[in-house]
């Protein structure tokens, strides 16, 4: 791959929590090397990012500008940005049949528990979002530090899949 930024799409079912956290975090950490997007396999009508996801990102000093919940269909069109890597971040989306992605990007699955399903006080729920953000950040710290030559399609896919074990 050349020196252009790599486009990474994070997928989840509703595109309101984990995929939103991952998109914002990679755009924050990517230093121009990566451009992150997120989408859902079946976002609800009028779906918006979870307010606790937004609060968690803001508390961490990560921009939430432009974050929206959207269907993965937006990225399966010929007009959509070409994706280099598609990562599912929830088990539901991982088991679904994905649309055909133009350019056949590398794929991987990084499973995270859904923080929006946490039962408890607002403080406990916010802590669940914070823990999920930290889990995503650990993998992305390794991912974003990869040298440019490690970002060919095959190496990218293998590395992203290996990070699922960390």
Q: How would you characterize the overall build of this protein?
A:
The chain has 166 residues and is an alpha/beta fold. The protein has a single domain (6-155), classed as Rossmann fold (3-Layer(aba) Sandwich), CATH 3.40.50. Helix content is 36%, strand content 13%. The protein has helices at 18-29, 51-59, 91-94, 122-144, 153-163; strands at residues 6-12, 34-40, 85-88, 106-109. A four-stranded parallel beta sheet has the order 2-1-3-4. Helix 1 links the parallel strand 1 and strand 2.
CATH class: Alpha Beta
Helical fraction equals: 25-40%
Strand content: 5-15%
Quaternary structure of the protein = single chain
The number of helical segments is: 5
Number of domains: 1
- CATH domain topology: Rossmann fold
Shape: globular
Distance between the termini: 25 Å
Q: CATH homologous superfamily - what is it?
A: Response regulator
Secondary structural class: alpha/beta
**Quantity of strands, as a count:** 4
Cα gyration radius (Å): 15 Å
The major sheet is characterized as: 4 strands, parallel
Q: Describe the strand arrangement of the main beta sheet, using strand numbers.
A: 2-1-3-4
Order of helices and strands: EHEHEHEHH
């Amino acid at each position: 791959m050349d020196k252009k930024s790599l486009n990474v799409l994070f997928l989840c079912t509703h595109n309101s929590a984990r995929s939103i956290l991952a998109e914002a975090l990679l755009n924050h950490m990517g230093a121009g090397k990566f451009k992150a997007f997120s989408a859902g396999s079946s976002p609800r009508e009028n779906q918006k990012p979870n307010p606790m996801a937004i609060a968690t990102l803001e508390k961490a000093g990560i921009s939430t500008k432009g974050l929206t919940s959207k269907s993965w269909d937006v990225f399966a069109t010929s007009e959509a940005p070409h994706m280099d890597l598609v990562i599912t971040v929830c088990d539901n989306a991982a088991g679904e049949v994905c649309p055909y992605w133009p350019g056949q990007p590398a794929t991987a699955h990084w499973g995270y528990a859904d923080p929006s399903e946490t039962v408890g006080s607002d403080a406990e729920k916010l802590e669940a979002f914070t823990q999920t953000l930290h889990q995503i950040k650990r993998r992305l710290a390794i991912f974003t530090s990869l040298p440019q030559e490690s970002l060919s399609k095959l190496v990218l896919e293998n590395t992203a899949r290996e990070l699922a074990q960390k």
